[in-house]
Amino acid sequence: MESFSLILAIVVVTALAFDFTNGFHDTANAMATTISTGALKPKIAVAMSAALNLVGAFLSVEVANTISKGLVDENGIRPEVIFAALVGAILWNLVTWLVGLPSSSSHALMGGLIGATVASAGFGAVHGDVLVTKVLLPAVAAPVVAGLAAMLSTRLSYAIGKNAENAEDAATRKGFRAGQIASAGLVSLAHGTNDAQKTMGIITLALIAGGSIAPGSNPPTWVILSAGLAIALGTYIGGWRIIRTMGKGLTDLRPQQGFAAQTSAATAILASSHLGFSLSTTHVVSGSVMGAGLGRKGGTVRWSTATRMMIAWVLTLPAAALVGALAESVTDLGDWGTAAVAVFLVASSAAIWKLSRREVVDSANVNDTDGTEPAGVVTAAMAAVTPPPAGPVTDDLTATILSPAPSPAPVTATDPAATV
Q: Which of 13, 173, 215, 284 places its Cα 20 to 30 Å from the Cα of 205?
């Protein structure tokens, strides 16, 4: 019983650690556009987002119930399985944060849970209908719907405030910035109602697996409070790398576009939370940012950045599932296996953090980019072989080689070649 209680405590702590990574990984969802357009200073933006995340955690438990009751068969799931799932989710969150890609923390969590569950109890323990209807279909539809809504909203915003493009029309710009701050707060609130609940659902599932609460129970109050605090703290830390990608890497946003993008995203997230869909806020906000970029006349979307993001989205579920399954295979060997996985998680997290210190991105330099994309492999190779511009030649050998050939000697009549 003591050993079981210890593993349950480890699972709860690890779940809160995942919630913390979810917070700083997804801060960009709420505040990237607000920061990039200058509507709020970076530190003020993340503080406001953190507070509203905490409030949002108390507004609903529908998504938490989808995780704890619907996705996998809660009967026969051991706490070690949930621990292995969290390992897969945390490592994927940290890797994508390191490279600045706004992937889905939600899908990382569900991928880890599915992989660990399959490794432990087989494919029959995963409820395929719930996976398709409440996870996969919303994952495909959400960015498309949010993008279209943001594009139409952007065009409507420009149609209503035609003078907003003039630098002299400060009142119009100020109005859009105020609206953007309000919509960013709404996204933060929606994020708390959706993402914080996923950790609640995981902890509740662990408590059911450990026999601490009855199957089918809603998250206890202390679970709701601790999950809300963990995601709020992570949000306040700020995932500056992903904020830079979302705010500057996808497109160059103006206040009208930021307002349209965040309003569209907040509406989609709140609707999904009400319906119990475990929606990825990252997918929704990324889709709305791209839609807002296309909605402004002359606006562009940097499709190479968008393509890298979409590849990360596709890989999230299977990658986290694979790590979760491998971790579950090791924890299944006994207490020493669980200890080995825990040591691996801590060591990997420390290594990723150390790598991130090579190029620090924080509130002071999050907007220090012109949005240009790095040159691809082909472009770099072509640049490497392009000859340098013509200039004075100082090397005698080079001068000899590059100098024009001397004109042939004049041909005389006595020359046999001339006769021929």
A: 284
Residue that has been written with the tokens 């996808």 in this structure = 250
Q: Is 312 exposed, middle or buried (0-12, 13-18, 19+ CB in 10 A)?
A: buried
Ordered alpha helix ranges (H), 210-334:
221-237, 240-244, 255-275, 281-295, 303-331
Task: From residue 393, give the alpha-carbon distance in Å to each of 23, 390, 396.
Answer: 59, 9, 8
Cα 122 from Cα 82, distance rounded (Å): 15
* C-alpha radius of gyration, the chain, whole number: 28
Residue type, 238: G
Average pLDDT of the chain to the nearest whole number: 77
233 CB burial (10 A radius; 0-12, 13-18, 19+) = middle
How many angstroms separate the first and last alpha carbons of the chain?
111
Q: Which residues on neighbouring strands pair with residue 126, listed in sequence order?
A: 72
Say if residues 254 and 42 touch (Cβ distance below 8 Å). Answer: no
Two tokens, residue 49: 């987002």
Contact between 218 and 61 under an 8 Å Cβ cutoff? The reply is yes
Q: Which of 16, 23, 14 is nearest to 194 (CA)?
A: 23
How many residues comprise the chain?
Answer: 420
pTM of the model: 0.74
- Decide: 242 and 97 in contact? Cβ < 8 Å: yes
Quote the CA–CA distance of 239 and 25 in Å, as a whole number.
Answer: 5
Distance (Å, rounded) from C-alpha 274 to C-alpha 254? Answer: 31
| pLDDT tens track for 1-11 | 333 468 888 89
Q: What is the pLDDT of residues 216-272, one digit of tens each?
A: 778 888 988 998 899 899 888 877 788 877 766 677 777 777 778 878 887 887 777
Find, among 30, 33, 23, the residue nearest to 250 by Cα.
Answer: 33
